[in-house]
């Protein structure tokens, strides 16, 4: 039932929804040609009443102010923000049936452009749901293609850098061929999804879902679902917080959000047997306890004290560093033994998904921003001690660096200084410069070119831009107009798991 709606008011809103919204957003509110209208995706969207009244520029969303009163619109906002009671089934059959392969796609034999295919950088433009494909040397836009509504998280590249997979919060996964500059197809792998991960060999794509509570594994070749899974040890379903590739381990690592378990899912046909229980062993032929599994998609459960929301790995993927959202501490779980090896002093909602690592005084350190405090924590990964908390002008969201760069680029996403970008010296851990390239506008998320010579920064605005900086002199080189650009992803940095980038 609605937040503030009950009885007849709810029925009226439901009738208005059926008449005006259902044809594009589906009777189930799970989305059709328009996005899903459910609290899981709308929770953060502001001004829904205005969108319903006036429509959304450069989309098919028309305005309804001529047909609906302000009260009716307010009731509709409550209606679409109410939890969905009957979530439709979304298993293998439904996923397979949602597949749309592009009729006009023919794979090119070689790149259809002369730019370095390893230095291509994608810019996600959330303003009108497109991705721009940039030549990383000249910064020319080679293509601009439409994405599903509300892309979130990093796109994932095939290991050879040719294909990229993009996920939307509504669970759509789009496959795009960079060599051909063409969409290959798309499939709806979930109804509300968190993120995606590529397997070490490029054959499988894992999709972490909240709705339904599943992990979907797709064939990257055909986009067909090959496995839709998730039942916690107690037999109950669970949402998946996020899934990542552990390249050295030839597996996916995911954390369940509703159960205290980390899963390792093998992408190596020779894997295992994994012990499907609270015994940690990788020895082939180890004693079967809770039904060991062998081979592709063998699954190992690693127990943790409480469910993890957010996590990160060391460069060798030996340890997972995790936290829950409210968490006042982080935990370090050794992926080989499955045991907890340390607790980290990380108060104030650390955003470990944005963590990066680098070398300092012969040690590897990691840094993470905190979502509710203007501070970056720097941790020594040798003994898990806190090296420093760097005070910033406000809470930030994203950190980026490059092996060749002496600096960390840290945005100040929230608060009055959202137009700033701090440049931090990786050795002294001091802020050495604060850039303010578009006063009053949100400046966020950095990505480097393949060689680390340039850094690209987003002006997060409908009338925004990507600013290209000389990464050494910190001087602006180019300003490329873009529609609310968010994340940027360089093929080389991503497929090589460059230490300064997100994985
Ligand atoms: Fe993100 C990455 C979770 C809100 C933009 N975000 C990620 C990842 C996770 C995550 C787990 C890593 C996935 C990956 O790349 O494989 N994000 C969350 C949240 O839990 C949170 C706080 C709440 C939510 O709504 O889900 C959240 N994120 C946001 C935003 O509000 C942002 C700023 C705008 C948006 O697009 O929704 C946002 N998140 C991003 C971006 C990345 C990301 C641009 C990829 C960064 C990268 O460099 O890889």
Automatic annotation (TrEMBL):
UniProt xrefs under CDD domains: 8prop_heme-binding_NirN
Which Gene Ontology MF annotations are present?
electron transfer activity; heme binding; metal ion binding
- One of its Pfam families is Cytochrom_D1
Q: Which UniProt keywords apply?
A: Heme, Iron, Metal-binding
Which InterPro entries does the UniProt entry name for this protein?
Cyt_c-like_dom, Cyt_c-like_dom_sf, Cyt_cd1_C_sf, Haem_d1_sf, Host-pathogen_enzymatic-act
Q: Which domain of life is it from?
A: Bacteria
Q: What PANTHER family does the record tag this protein with?
A: DIHYDRO-HEME D1 DEHYDROGENASE, PROTEIN NIRF
What is the recorded name of this protein?
Cytochrome Cbb3
Q: Specify the species.
A: Paracoccus sphaerophysae
